[in-house]
Amino acid sequence: MVFVNTLVSGVDQGLLYAVLALGVYITYRLLDFADLTCEGSFSMGAMLSAVIIANNTNTDPAVSAIMRIVAAFTVIFAGAAAGLVTGILNTKFKIPPILSGILTLTMLTSINILIGAGRASIPVVGGNFASWLQLPAMYAVLISGLLIGAILIGVLYWFFGTEMGASIRATGANEKMARAQGINTSAKKIIALMLSNALIALSGALVSQYMGTATVTLGTGSIVIGLAAIVIGETLIPSKRSFAVALLSVIIGSIIYYIIYQFVILAGLPSDYIKLITAIIIVLALCLPMIKTFFIKIGKKADTYLRGKYAGYNAYAIKRDEKAAARKEERKQKAIEDIKALQLMLHEDGSLTPFKRKLAEARLARKKEKFEMKEGVKALAVFDLIDRETEEIQAEKAGEGGADNA
Description:
Oligomer: single chain
CATH class of the largest domain: Mainly Alpha
Distance between the termini: 79 Å
């Protein structure tokens, strides 16, 4: 039972801190912006949420639930305001990213004390955001956290697929190229920072309600937690081909981090060691690609040596490579057929509703993008061939229709 409770507790905390990790992911990975505003925004979300709830305590559960929703929206806007300040300092006053974040963090340290009216700690009374489920707190938080995570993945996946989101990703990938394409990179940086800190402040509010207290130092080290979740998630779940998987990997990384954290506490180690363990986990996660590459090189050298040394192994290796090539070609042909079928459906099926057509177009775009990442420049020739074949099939059907009418 202790094992199960520890595991569920780790998942609960991981899901709540996953909101923070998603915010850090936006600046760290998508925007390539080292934003240290994170720690101040997290504490601000916790303190502001606690103050709003404490000042509007009501015995009516419905009123209490409404006030928690109000608190959540308030901290979202407050976090966005903190991101706005950092963005303006960086884009308008040309202050370096790290220094911009430190300056905003310094401001927020005093602002958080003012929010608490001089109190360094504020209790959160009347339950938490998951109380509406009428379940044991541990399982109510688990269900609510899963729901929040699913909603955030859906919203962020949609947003970063829009023109605005794509512009933000382009700004982070290559700012000079994005500016040359007519993108207002300063505005996109500010929007991304606002969105990031809004999520971080929301995470602070959720965590403070879960813990039952909010402190001005609650956000200390939160940037490390966010980075750890990102690194662990990306190492365990490679997501180069899917943005949705990348977002999911961040949440899973946060859960794994807090499961490890909970079992470290269960093992009897002081919580002070968690920072050291976190650093070790991040170092190992960052080194894993290099370790993997090292073993791949060793494997290739061993394969070459055995091929030349043993005729039996050489015959086995040739058959193995032929099977691998056949599987690769089979997957390639299936991908081509899927793209062709989707393209024909979009051109021929006039009964598709606008919504279904949009879904089909998005699916076609994803399949083309995935195929292009695998095949590189060769994919362009394949796409041209598919276009020609689609036009020929349409022309043949149009000719058959004309003959039938005649």
